[in-house]
Amino acid sequence: MVLFGSAKDHEAGNEILAALNTEQQAWCRNLAGETQLDQAVILIAACKAIVTNDSGLMHVAAALNRPLVALYGPSSPDFTPPLSIKARVIR
């Protein structure tokens, strides 16, 4: 599991890691704030599936035709949906 986000998301990523047991932590990397866009695109292209919020990286995953689940909070998928037949939206 790879966690993406901006530098401000890094602490939230650490909280996710802390909630995992030791074996699960071995399979998880918190890259929030540590990748450039081109690096994130390459990593997303290699992922088997993506779980994301409504973000630019969601649209990258959709454009790369990766299976994805998009989580929407206050924003609406009616205006900015992931444009992929492999995407599912949760409101």
UniProtKB/TrEMBL annotation:
<dbReference type="InterPro" id="IPR051199">
    <property type="entry name" value="LPS_LOS_Heptosyltrfase"/>
</dbReference>
<dbReference type="InterPro" id="IPR002201">
    <property type="entry name" value="Glyco_trans_9"/>
</dbReference>
<keyword id="KW-0328">Glycosyltransferase</keyword>
<keyword id="KW-0808">Transferase</keyword>
<dbReference type="GO" id="GO:0005829">
    <property type="term" value="C:cytosol"/>
</dbReference>
<dbReference type="InterPro" id="IPR011910">
    <property type="entry name" value="RfaF"/>
</dbReference>
<comment type="similarity">
    <text>Belongs to the glycosyltransferase 9 family.</text>
</comment>
<dbReference type="GO" id="GO:0008713">
    <property type="term" value="F:ADP-heptose-lipopolysaccharide heptosyltransferase activity"/>
</dbReference>
<dbReference type="Pfam" id="PF01075">
    <property type="entry name" value="Glyco_transf_9"/>
</dbReference>
<dbReference type="GO" id="GO:0009244">
    <property type="term" value="P:lipopolysaccharide core region biosynthetic process"/>
</dbReference>
<protein>
    <recommendedName>
        <fullName>lipopolysaccharide heptosyltransferase II</fullName>
        <ecNumber>2.4.99.24</ecNumber>
    </recommendedName>
</protein>
